[in-house]
Specification:
globular, alpha+beta, Dna Ligase, domain 1, 206 residues
């Protein structure tokens, strides 16, 4: 009766509400397709060196995320953007494909910096940079390339040691390519306060 009047979908919903199972549970959720790390700069970046430092920092964070989720990346994309509200606004991206899907932070950083060198435009004031990793595969499913000369097992062990250090000490491993002063970072004092999630940010009555 319900099906004839309202259709199959509505009838199934009614059955579900009555306790009958009409839809199979999704046993295998869709595989993750990409992983991204990006941030607005604390101030506009004009220097190629600073843009490369930021890209290195984001690539390092992306590598940590990859290994934490047991993925390896086949593709790395870097994008840069200026303010879109200025004359001659600039947005562009560059992609690198790896011979073998990788989790190696040094490989991610060097590839990201090569991309930045191709994307950089003198005179542009960049507002944001981002790293996107695509072609994700489970580390156990990596197919080795016959022409790949890297010692992947040695690299994997090295990354495991680095991740262990990062998880047990702060601030953890520092990659030289990330720079020292990092003037492009958003300064903590300039961040918005989190009144709803941090007790230390609650306003005080005087």
């Amino acid at each position: 009766m319900v099906r004839d009047k309202f259709g199959v979908v509505y009838a199934r919903v009614v059955c579900e509400l009555q306790g009958a199972c009409c839809y199979d549970l999704e046993q295998n959720p869709p595989a993750k397709k990409s992983l991204a790390v990006s941030r607005m700069f604390g101030r506009p970046v004009e220097s190629l060196e600073q843009l490369k430092e930021a890209a290195a920092n984001y690539a390092a964070r992306a590598g940590e995320k990859l290994r934490e989720e047991n993925f390896a990346a086949s593709l790395l994309t870097v994008y840069v953007i200026t303010s879109m509200f200025i004359k001659n606004a600039y947005y562009n991206s560059q992609t690198v494909e790896f011979q073998t899907p990788t989790t190696n932070t040094t490989e991610l950083i060097s590839s990201a910096q090569l991309c930045v060198e191709k994307l950089y435009r003198k005179g542009c004031k960049f507002k944001k940079c981002g790293i996107v990793l695509n072609g994700l595969v489970q580390q156990d499913n990596i197919q080795q390339n016959l022409f790949d000369t890297r010692d992947r097992q040695k690299t994997k062990r090295l990354m495991e040691v680095i991740d262990k250090i990062n998880s047990s000490t702060a601030p953890g491993i520092f990659w030289a390519a990330e720079g020292i002063r990092q003037p492009w970072r958003v300064k903590f004092k300039k961040r918005s306060k989190h009144y709803t999630t941090d007790w230390n940010h609650l306003p005080e009555a005087v």
